[in-house]
Amino acid sequence: MRHIVPLLLAAAALADAPKPPSSEDKQVADPLQAKFNPVTLAGVPAGVQASPIAVDPATKGSIAYAKIPMKTHFPMHWHSYTEYTALLSGTATLTLDGKPYDISPGSYFVIPAKTHHALDCGTAADCLLLTRRAGPTDYNWVK
Predict the structure, then answer these.
(1) 37-44 long-range Cβ contacts below 8 angstroms, 24+ apart
(2) Could you tell me if residue 28 is inside a domain?
(3) Which residue range is the domain that position 50 belongs to?
(4) What's the rounded Cα separation, in Å, for the pair 43 and 80?
(5) Per the confidence metrics, is the pTM higher than 0.90?
(6) CB contact set of 50 (below 8 Å; sequence gap of 6+)
(7) pLDDT tens, position by position, 84-124
(8) Which CATH number does the domain housing residue 71 bear?
(9) Distance CA 9, CA 42 (A)
(10) How far apart are CA 119 and CA 73, in angstroms?
(11) How many other C-beta atoms lie within 10 A of the C-beta of residue 108?
Protein backbone atom coordinates (compact mmCIF):
# COMPACT_ATOMS: atom_id res chain seq x y z
CA MET A 1 0.00 0.00 0.00
CA ARG A 2 2.87 2.39 0.82
CA HIS A 3 4.04 2.22 -2.80
CA ILE A 4 0.58 2.66 -4.29
CA VAL A 5 -0.25 5.93 -2.49
CA PRO A 6 2.52 7.98 -4.19
CA LEU A 7 1.50 6.58 -7.56
CA LEU A 8 -2.16 7.42 -6.96
CA LEU A 9 -1.22 10.94 -5.85
CA ALA A 10 0.97 11.37 -8.92
CA ALA A 11 -1.80 10.11 -11.18
CA ALA A 12 -4.30 12.51 -9.62
CA ALA A 13 -1.90 15.44 -9.90
CA LEU A 14 -1.16 14.65 -13.54
CA ALA A 15 -4.74 13.83 -14.59
CA ASP A 16 -5.45 17.41 -15.64
CA ALA A 17 -1.98 18.07 -17.04
CA PRO A 18 -1.41 17.80 -20.79
CA LYS A 19 0.03 14.44 -21.77
CA PRO A 20 3.71 14.62 -22.77
CA PRO A 21 4.62 13.16 -26.16
CA SER A 22 6.20 9.76 -26.63
CA SER A 23 9.95 9.57 -26.14
CA GLU A 24 9.94 8.07 -29.65
CA ASP A 25 8.50 11.24 -31.23
CA LYS A 26 10.68 13.84 -32.91
CA GLN A 27 11.04 16.92 -30.71
CA VAL A 28 13.41 19.54 -29.39
CA ALA A 29 13.16 20.47 -25.71
CA ASP A 30 14.46 23.77 -24.35
CA PRO A 31 14.35 24.54 -20.62
CA LEU A 32 13.94 28.25 -21.42
CA GLN A 33 10.65 27.43 -23.22
CA ALA A 34 9.49 24.73 -20.78
CA LYS A 35 6.22 25.12 -18.86
CA PHE A 36 6.99 24.36 -15.22
CA ASN A 37 4.32 23.41 -12.71
CA PRO A 38 4.55 22.91 -8.95
CA VAL A 39 5.13 19.33 -7.83
CA THR A 40 2.43 18.67 -5.25
CA LEU A 41 3.28 15.13 -4.18
CA ALA A 42 3.41 14.51 -0.44
CA GLY A 43 7.01 14.71 0.78
CA VAL A 44 8.31 16.87 -2.08
CA PRO A 45 9.60 20.20 -0.71
CA ALA A 46 7.63 23.38 -1.41
CA GLY A 47 8.79 25.26 -4.46
CA VAL A 48 9.94 22.24 -6.49
CA GLN A 49 8.65 22.43 -10.05
CA ALA A 50 8.68 20.04 -13.01
CA SER A 51 8.18 20.21 -16.75
CA PRO A 52 7.49 16.89 -18.48
CA ILE A 53 9.24 16.33 -21.80
CA ALA A 54 8.23 12.81 -22.84
CA VAL A 55 7.17 9.34 -21.70
CA ASP A 56 8.54 6.07 -23.03
CA PRO A 57 5.51 4.17 -24.39
CA ALA A 58 7.00 0.76 -23.56
CA THR A 59 8.35 1.33 -20.02
CA LYS A 60 6.29 4.39 -18.94
CA GLY A 61 9.60 5.97 -17.90
CA SER A 62 9.53 9.76 -18.01
CA ILE A 63 11.91 12.44 -19.21
CA ALA A 64 11.49 15.81 -17.49
CA TYR A 65 13.12 18.99 -16.28
CA ALA A 66 12.99 19.75 -12.55
CA LYS A 67 13.66 23.04 -10.77
CA ILE A 68 14.66 22.95 -7.13
CA PRO A 69 14.94 26.29 -5.32
CA MET A 70 18.34 27.25 -3.93
CA LYS A 71 18.91 26.19 -0.31
CA THR A 72 16.29 23.43 -0.64
CA HIS A 73 16.86 20.01 0.87
CA PHE A 74 15.17 17.27 -1.19
CA PRO A 75 14.86 14.49 1.41
CA MET A 76 16.23 10.96 1.31
CA HIS A 77 14.19 8.64 -0.90
CA TRP A 78 14.45 5.87 -3.48
CA HIS A 79 12.71 4.83 -6.71
CA SER A 80 11.74 1.44 -8.12
CA TYR A 81 13.59 2.14 -11.38
CA THR A 82 16.98 3.59 -12.31
CA GLU A 83 17.23 7.37 -12.67
CA TYR A 84 19.62 9.11 -15.10
CA THR A 85 20.15 12.82 -14.36
CA ALA A 86 22.23 15.77 -15.52
CA LEU A 87 22.51 18.98 -13.53
CA LEU A 88 22.05 21.81 -16.04
CA SER A 89 22.46 24.78 -13.70
CA GLY A 90 23.12 25.54 -10.06
CA THR A 91 25.30 23.54 -7.72
CA ALA A 92 24.28 20.85 -5.27
CA THR A 93 25.36 18.07 -2.99
CA LEU A 94 23.98 14.70 -4.02
CA THR A 95 24.03 11.99 -1.37
CA LEU A 96 23.98 8.40 -2.66
CA ASP A 97 23.73 5.65 -0.03
CA GLY A 98 25.26 7.98 2.57
CA LYS A 99 28.16 9.28 0.42
CA PRO A 100 28.02 12.99 -0.56
CA TYR A 101 29.06 14.18 -4.03
CA ASP A 102 29.46 17.85 -4.98
CA ILE A 103 27.88 18.37 -8.38
CA SER A 104 28.02 21.33 -10.75
CA PRO A 105 26.54 22.19 -14.16
CA GLY A 106 27.25 19.34 -16.57
CA SER A 107 27.48 16.71 -13.85
CA TYR A 108 25.76 13.45 -14.81
CA PHE A 109 24.74 10.77 -12.37
CA VAL A 110 23.03 7.41 -12.45
CA ILE A 111 20.98 6.37 -9.44
CA PRO A 112 20.26 2.63 -9.56
CA ALA A 113 16.85 1.36 -8.49
CA LYS A 114 16.29 1.34 -4.72
CA THR A 115 19.42 3.44 -4.03
CA HIS A 116 18.78 5.88 -1.17
CA HIS A 117 19.51 9.43 -2.31
CA ALA A 118 18.93 13.07 -1.38
CA LEU A 119 19.87 16.41 -2.92
CA ASP A 120 20.76 19.72 -1.31
CA CYS A 121 20.61 22.57 -3.81
CA GLY A 122 23.36 25.15 -3.25
CA THR A 123 23.01 28.67 -1.92
CA ALA A 124 23.81 30.73 -5.04
CA ALA A 125 21.16 29.65 -7.58
CA ASP A 126 18.24 27.31 -8.19
CA CYS A 127 19.08 23.84 -9.47
CA LEU A 128 17.84 22.76 -12.89
CA LEU A 129 17.97 19.04 -13.62
CA LEU A 130 17.18 16.89 -16.65
CA THR A 131 16.07 13.40 -15.64
CA ARG A 132 15.18 10.23 -17.52
CA ARG A 133 13.65 7.32 -15.62
CA ALA A 134 13.79 3.67 -16.65
CA GLY A 135 10.20 3.07 -15.51
CA PRO A 136 7.24 4.83 -13.91
CA THR A 137 8.08 7.52 -11.37
CA ASP A 138 7.56 6.70 -7.72
CA TYR A 139 8.90 8.21 -4.50
CA ASN A 140 9.60 6.06 -1.48
CA TRP A 141 10.63 8.29 1.43
CA VAL A 142 13.27 7.13 3.87
CA LYS A 143 12.50 8.10 7.44
Answers:
(1) 39/13, 39/66, 40/13, 41/6, 41/9, 41/10, 41/13, 41/139, 42/5, 42/6, 42/9, 43/6, 43/75, 43/77, 43/139, 43/141, 44/74, 44/139
(2) no
(3) 4-18+37-141
(4) 17
(5) no
(6) 36, 37, 39, 64, 65, 66, 67
(7) 999 999 999 999 999 999 999 999 999 999 999 999 999 99
(8) 2.60.120.10
(9) 8
(10) 6
(11) 10
